[in-house]
Design goal:
The protein has 467 residues and is an alpha/beta fold. Helices cover 43% and strands 11% of the residues. It has a domain of 211 residues: Rossmann fold (3-Layer(aba) Sandwich), CATH 3.40.50.1820. The strands form 2 sheets. The protein has an 8-stranded mixed β-sheet, sandwiched between helices. A two-stranded antiparallel sheet has the order 1-2. Helix 4 packs across helix 11, helix 6 packs across helix 15 and helix 7 packs across helix 8. It is globular. It starts with 44 loop residues before the first strand and ends with a helix. Pfam families: Abhydrolase_3. This is Alpha/beta hydrolase fold-3 domain-containing protein.
């Protein structure tokens, strides 16, 4: 969610042609009438900041900028962002003049004195984007649907809307200089390697230490492109290559069960001699926000397996672990988010309830039929103590949990750390006071973001050495 406003314009160079490497790269092709030579799925567009974007992003961009319904919503999205960004600038100007600063972003939250002007501005731009998205009539139509007539049409419209939003975000943010970005395919879906020092992921001198990451985005948005800077920064800090898993997104590509199944298959590929060829002892899995839920779901699957060997460690950044708000502390945090938090998620309480219902519909049905049958589908609420007790806990690798003290999901992280610690799991908790959701993405604007990434890198290095 933190990269919701990552791209505001598209600047592409001409399509280029490069030799294909089977199984590792998606080939490029020049224009041609020969379908054997130039298949649409092979076309990639070169971007100024790194390398290229693939067919998925190209289609998203085309959909976004040719869809009248989405284009009609762009002015309102921009209006919300402008309102919030302007409030942030006024607040900072008041502080510079010695004034109190006052309210920001249409709410009663005020910024901590430690925030820089650019950091506050970026936070409020994202808040404005998310607030505009949450006001969407398409989401409200799905939320008010019945199980009878009209459900399929409402779901189709939601799918169109979120595909358009993904298109607006498809260009993304540049990775750190020197990072080599390579696309591969796992189980018919894209995955991306980000390797420091410009080496290919399978080069003999590339790091063996590996981070397998699931990006955030509320299970419906974002991609490797939106998270490229965060992942490349983490790879550099850890001295590791990073595999970013492009799991299916709701509602059009899949629900939670398809997402988790693909994540499990990606881990199996990564550890297979015929796939990534990485020893589990050299792997740390992780995720931010919704990706953190998938990372924990993967760990749960591996803890339940008598065959698969788990990773050396787990890194969670602002994980979204109780999306149904089953825990009272989670519900309390969301009820007070708009009035008490400067986190940019403060205005999305209702829309995330819609997302939860979209993503976890079949999981909820399974829970109703057999509440403790976790072997088929993990629960929505990863704060359930029975998930972490007994022999299962003994198979859990060390964990690092980072979160912002000002974010609405802080209560979930605190409860998770407490439950894991009481179950005997080795867990390190790092709360960064006064910072918002997945603040690590602001590492260029906020020193604590850089410090958190360095700490996560040190954790990856340490657990991979000792495993």
């Amino acid at each position: 969610m933190a990269y919701a406003v990552a791209c505001t314009r598209l600047s592409c160079l001409p399509i280029s042609s490069r030799p294909a490497r089977a199984g590792k790269h998606v080939a490029c092709a020049t224009s041609s009438r020969d379908e054997e030579v130039a298949k649409p799925a092979e076309v990639r567009v070169r971007l100024p900041w790194t390398g290229d974007i693939g067919p998925r992003e190209i289609k998203l961009l085309a959909d976004a900028f040719t869809d009248p319904k989405l284009l009609s919503s762009v002015p309102s999205i921009g209006g919300y962002m402008l309102r919030n960004g302007t409030a942030a600038l006024r607040h900072q100007a008041s502080i510079l003049r010695g004034g109190p600063g006052g309210k920001v972003g249409g709410g009663s939250a005020t910024y901590p004195s430690s925030w820089s002007g650019p950091f506050a501005f970026a936070n409020e731009l994202i808040a404005g984007f998310l607030e505009a998205v949450s006001a969407s009539n398409e989401l409200e139509r799905y939320r008010s649907r019945t199980r009878g007539e009209g459900e399929e049409e409402a779901l189709r419209r939601v799918g169109e809307y979120v595909r358009g939003l993904r298109g607006l975000m498809a260009v993304g943010i540049a990775p750190m200089p020197g990072t080599k970005v390579q696309s591969i395919e796992i189980d018919g879906r894209s995955a991306v390697w980000l390797t420091p020092d410009g080496k290919s992921w399978d080069h003999p001198d590339a790091p063996r230490r590996t981070v397998m990451w699931m990006h955030g985005g509320a299970f419906i948005l974002c991609s490797t492109n939106t998270h490229a800077r965060l992942l490349s920064s983490l790879g550099i800090a850890a001295g590791a290559k990073v595999l970013s898993v492009e799991y299916p997104l709701a509602p059009d590509e899949g629900r939670y069960e398809e997402m988790l199944s693909h994540v499990v298959e990606a881990y199996q590929w990564l550890t297979s001699p015929s796939g990534g060829g990485v020893d589990p002892g050299s792997i740390v899995v992780g995720g931010d926000s919704a990706g953190g839920h998938l990372a924990v779901g993967l760990v749960q699957r591996l803890m339940s397996s008598e065959v698969a060997k788990g990773p050396a460690g787990v890194v969670l950044m602002s994980p979204w672990l109780d999306p149904g708000r089953d825990d009272p502390a989670t519900e309390d945090a969301w009820n007070s988010a708009r009035d008490t938090s400067c986190c940019y998620l403060r205005g999305v309480k209702d829309s995330l309830k819609v997302v939860h219902d979209l993503v976890f519909e079949r999981v909820m049905e399974e829970e109703e039929e057999n509440e403790l049958a976790f072997s088929y589908l993990p629960p929505r609420n990863m704060l359930r103590r029975e998930l972490w007790d007994g022999e299962r806990a003994s198979r859990c690798p060390p964990m690092l949990v980072q979160y912002g003290g000002a974010e609405v999901l802080a209560a979930e992280s605190r409860n998770f750390v407490r439950i894991a610690s009481e179950s005997g799991i080795e867990v390190t908790s790092q709360e960064f006071k006064d910072l918002p959701h997945v603040f690590q993405v602001f590492d260029a604007l906020e020193a604590e973001g850089e410090r958190a990434i360095q700490s996560a890198g040190a954790f990856v290095s340490d657990v991979c050495k000792t495993s």
